[in-house]
Amino acid sequence: MTSRASLESMQQRISGKVKGGVVVLDDAVLADGTSVTVLVEQAEIVDPPDVPIEFDAKGDVIMTPELEADIAAAIAESDRGEGTPWETVRAEIFGKR
Fold first, then answer.
1. Which whole-number Å values give the CA distances from 78 to 46, 62, 83, 87, in the listed order?
2. Burial 17-38 (b: 16+ CB within 10 A, else e)
C-alpha cells in the first residue's frame, strides 16, 4: 500500500484556466492518458455552448465553420436588437453598482 506522503510527493500542482469549458494549462503539457484531479478555487456552473469550442496547443480558439456561423448568428441577433443590453450583462457579471 502506498503511503499518503509518497502519494503527495508524486503529485504536482499545475495551474490553468477554463476556456470554452476546457481546462487550458499554464506553461505545461501533459501526456495523453495522464490521470488528473481538478480542484477549483471558485466555480460557476454554466450551460455548455451550443457549438463546441476547440483550442490549439497554445490555447487559442480554433475558428471552425460552426463557430463562425454561431458568431455570425449572434451578431445578426444583436443587429436586430434582440440581444441583451450591455447594462444588464454588466450587472449580472459584476453586480449592480
1. 22, 23, 5, 14
2. eeeeeeeeeeeeeeeeeeeeee
Domain region containing 1: 1-44
Backbone torsions φ then ψ of 74, nearest 5 degrees: -65, -40
The pLDDT, as a whole number, for residue 76 is 92
Instruction: Answer whether residue 52 is part of any domain.
Output: no
Within-domain flag for 69: no
> Does residue 25 belong to any structural domain of this protein?
yes
Report yes or no on 5 lying in a domain: yes
One-letter amino acid for residue 36 of the chain = V
In this predicted structure, which of 17-26, 47-56, 64-73, 74-83 has the lowest mean pLDDT? 47-56
